[in-house]
Specification:
Helix content: 10-25%
Distance between the termini: 33 Å
Strand content: 25-35%
Number of strands: 13
Length: 267
């Protein structure tokens, strides 16, 4: 009975520890108020419109333009970029593509998702998606692993027929992330996010040069969390406790009842 009570207490503690970890597997970003959503996009990396994760953004442009947005991503997150392009009633077949770059302008590969799609003639809209690899807290200098920092979204049409160049279109993008947690933890971390990105303040002119290019101010809601702590420590501690209890239980089962009282000493 005593062993049953001990195992029951361990199961209760394990359940309490698993609950926060299970909560971490849900998307980390919550939808923002659409009233303050950006309604324009940049035309280059330096003029990319900053958006937060979970915040929808829209923009109007012309087929053949490059549309840019930027967003922050932290260690342990797996960002998903979704884009919808609304096309005019009359158009030829068009191929639209979405690309994601990190702060060093390195193109990041998509794990899965419809990164490129062709809209047949007369199609009203086309939807794109790109699920990035999990952002790591640290990586080798030669690797192209995604690291904490600013990421850039580029949306454009490729191989456009001449008849569709300059046709007005509208686009919408949204970025959400899934928190992978300790499964993505590595033995190391960055002291600062990788190249926080560059943005351009509106109203820059020759008379006020300080209102020109500046470092991006966007960051995750809870700040950059790169560091030594992850929920992998929790699971390591639980494993140690279970191993100790297993050792105690094994000893209790194999030691026997001791010397019977009827057996005299020395026998």
């Amino acid at each position: 009975m005593r062993s049953i009570r001990v195992l029951g207490a361990v199961a209760l503690l394990l359940g309490l520890a698993v609950s926060p970890a299970a909560a971490d597997s849900s998307p980390s970003a919550s939808p923002s108020d659409d009233a303050g959503a950006p309604t324009e996009a940049g035309t280059a990396f330096r003029t990319a419109t900053e958006i937060e994760q979970g915040q929808p953004a829209t923009a109007r442009g012309s087929a053949g333009d490059y549309l840019y947005w930027s967003f922050p991503a932290d260690a342990g997150q797996r960002p998903t970029v979704e884009a919808t392009v609304k096309l005019p009633e009359t158009h030829a077949a068009e191929t639209w593509r979405i690309d994601v770059y990190d702060g060093l302008r390195r193109r990041q590969a998509c794990q899965y998702g419809a990164q490129s799609r062709t809209a047949a003639a007369g199609t009203s809209s086309v939807e794109l998606a790109c699920v990035l690899r999990t952002v790591r807290a640290w990586s080798e200098p030669w690797a192209d692993d995604p690291l904490p920092g600013t990421y850039y979204i580029r949306l454009t049409a490729v191989n456009l027929p001449t008849s569709d160049l300059g046709v007005p279109v509208s686009a919408g993008v949204r970025v959400d992330s899934k928190d992978i947690g300790g499964a993505a933890a590595v033995d190391g971390s960055l002291a600062e996010p990788l190249v926080p990105g560059v943005a351009v303040r509106s109203g820059a002119d020759e008379e006020d040069p300080e209102r020109g290019a500046v470092l991006s101010a966007i960051e995750p809601d809870d700040g950059w969390s790169s560091g030594w702590w992850s929920d992998r420590w929790v699971w390591t501690g639980i494993g140690g406790v279970l191993a100790a209890l297993a050792g105690i239980g094994g000893y209790a089962l194999t030691r026997g009842a001791g010397r019977p009282r009827r057996v005299p000493p020395g026998v």
